[in-house]
Specification:
The protein contains two helices and 20 strands. By secondary structure, the chain is of the alpha+beta class. It folds into two domains: about 120 residues, no CATH class; about 130 residues, no CATH class. The relative contact order is 0.20.
């Protein structure tokens, strides 16, 4: 009877992790550049009580055998890379990526991170940074007095100098990965490179697999609240059924105990 308790408990634990994931997705439904996560489930080991194809007592072959499963486990989480809606803001410095790619930023400790959130600003030193102050890599520095700039779909930056003359700046480059699903989420809409993601490939927007840029716009979250609510209801129902299985197993054990007495 302990098998059924453990099996149902594994189902409850898996559904709890799923609800945790859904809750995080819903909490970030309005976070620019956010990518929702999904969970992958896998069946746990089976106990084979009778092998398929073995002979039975009457000389016949057992065509199915007898195997009992031991529950479910979460195999891993997977980041959805679906494109979020492009929201026009009209603000200089807001840049959305339409297609594959990430902006590369450098943290104060020198660590390289990657983000889809293109809310970029010019700091007091003229450098292009995120709202948190993380410097864009490769570094882009503007002349003193520049507060606004424009970005072409292929990354070329233009700005007006102090005399109002239009000047060409460097190209705002983005990075792609052999397997972007393998990136590690670090919070603050940042991701870090892992062995599973492969090495970052720096390039100009619109080349190779890199997407194009949309100026004065931000990419919205790719979370569908309706889909997440439906998934939450399903997870809740599954959790309830597994909880009921625990109760039934407990009642059966109590019945068996009373019979022995």
């Amino acid at each position: 009877m302990n098998r059924s308790l453990n099996t149902a408990a594994s189902g409850m634990q898996a559904q709890q992790l799923l609800v945790d994931t859904i809750a995080n997705n819903l909490a970030n439904a309005s976070t620019h550049g956010f990518k929702g996560s999904d969970l992958d489930f896998r069946a746990l080991f089976y106990q084979t009580l009778r092998e398929p194809g073995t002979g039975s007592g009457n000389g016949q072959m057992d065509t199915t055998g007898l195997q009992i499963g031991s529950g479910v486990d979460v195999a891993g989480s997977r980041v959805s890379l679906a494109q979020g809606a492009i929201e026009l803001t009209g603000r200089s410095g807001d840049v959305a990526i339409e297609g594959d790619g990430f902006f590369q930023v450098e943290l104060p400790n020198g660590q390289q991170m990657f983000t889809r959130k293109g809310a970029l600003r010019i700091d007091g030193n003229g450098q292009l940074v995120t709202p948190e102050g993380y410097r864009i890599v490769p570094a882009i520095t503007f002349p003193q007095g520049v507060t606004e700039f424009a970005v072409a779909p292929t990354g070329e930056i233009t700005f007006a100098d102090e005399q109002g003359q239009l000047q060409d700046g460097p190209i705002l480059q983005i990075v792609t990965f052999p397997n972007a699903h393998g990136l590690r989420a670090e919070g603050q809409s940042l991701y870090s490179q892992t062995a599973a993601s492969g090495a970052a490939v720096l390039g100009n927007p619109g080349t190779a697999r890199a997407g194009l840029l949309v100026d004065r716009a931000l990419e919205g979250s790719n979370v569908s609240t309706i889909e997440q609510l439906v998934a939450m209801i399903k997870a809740q129902r599954s959790y309830e059924m597994n909880s009921r299985a625990v109760s039934v197993a407990d009642e059966m054990m109590q019945t068996a105990s009373q019979v022995v007495r």
